Amino acid sequence: MKVAIVGGTGKEGRGLAQRWARAGLEVFVGSRDAARAEETAAAIAGAGRVRGGSNEWAVEQADLVVLSVPYSAHAATLAALAPRLAGKVLVDITVPLVPPKVTRVTLPAGQAAALEAQAIVGPGTSVVAAFHHVGAAHLADADHAVDCDVLVCSDDEAARARVVELVAALGMRGLEAGPLANAIALESLTPVLLFLNRKYKSAGAGLRITGLPSA
Ligand SMILES: NC(=O)c1ccc[n+]([C@@H]2O[C@H](COP(=O)([O-])OP(=O)(O)OC[C@H]3O[C@@H](n4cnc5c(N)ncnc54)[C@H](OP(=O)(O)O)[C@@H]3O)[C@@H](O)[C@H]2O)c1
């Protein structure tokens, strides 16, 4: 399986890249600066098959693309890449935080970053929202098992199921959590987790869903 990560040089994208590479996936790290992506890929290439290049190049390499840039860069990045994303699955992991108040829920104009993404890329791209509750600190150490479920929502059921498989490759449980509109709830939970981290002096509060039959 091939995965491209736009903004894959960052904290979250790099962690995802190294874990997917270790699981045997082919990973394409994207950046605004191709050299930076090549450096990132080289730093984790020992774990598997990782290559780096421009964001545009990365998107061309895979039919599943993870968007991993700050919310402040979300709309502009997507608008620039939209033609290249046609016919692909876009996994939007963006949390629309408003620094410095990152422990307070603030809905963006389109109610959720993922809904805004779908409006920007159009119906020819299936947007899936996921990974909002997996902290980069957990992903950084590839030997560390992440004790967290990953809730996955999309209007495209096949794309949703595909991302649940990608979560399993990371060693976590992915759960289908309904249509893309549910990203409003998923994105809104991250400021709550950040508040819990601050309050209880942790770096890694996560979510675990109980009461489901074990898969
Ligand atoms: N960090 C976490 O624990 C965590 C957890 C769950 C979800 N998320 C979400 O994951 C996304 C990435 O988070 P992160 O912590 O990895 O962020 P980050 O390290 O601050 O940035 C990720 C990458 O985005 C690119 N970028 C930064 N500013 C940009 C701009 N103006 N235009 C285009 N690209 C830009 C940079 O890549 P280049 O400079 O190489 O282009 C950067 O390496 C965010 O939306 C965040 O809400 C993060």
Q: Would you mind describing this structure in some detail?
A:
With 215 residues, the chain is α/β, with parallel strands linked by helices. It has one domain: Rossmann fold (3-Layer(aba) Sandwich). It contains eight helices and eight strands; from the N terminus they run βαβαβαβαβαβαβαβα. An eight-stranded mixed beta sheet has the order 3-2-1-4-5-6-7-8, with helices on both faces. α5 links the parallel β5 and β6. The radius of gyration is 16 Å and the shape is globular. The site of NADP nicotinamide-adenine-dinucleotide phosphate (NAP) has 24 residues, from α1.
Keywords for this entry:
215 residues, Rossmann fold, 8-stranded mixed β-sheet, 8 strands, globular, binds NADP nicotinamide-adenine-dinucleotide phosphate
How is the secondary structure organized here?
Elements: E1 2-6, H1 11-22, E2 26-31, H2 34-44, E3 49-54, H3 55-61, E4 64-67, H4 74-85, E5 89-92, H5 113-121, E6 126-129, H6 136-140, E7 149-154, H7 157-169, E8 173-176, H8 183-199
Parallel strand pairs: 1-2, 1-4, 2-3, 4-5, 5-6, 7-8
Antiparallel strand pairs: 6-7
NADP nicotinamide-adenine-dinucleotide phosphate is lined by residues 7, 9-13, 31-33, 36, 68-71, 73, 77, 93-95, 131-132, 134-136.
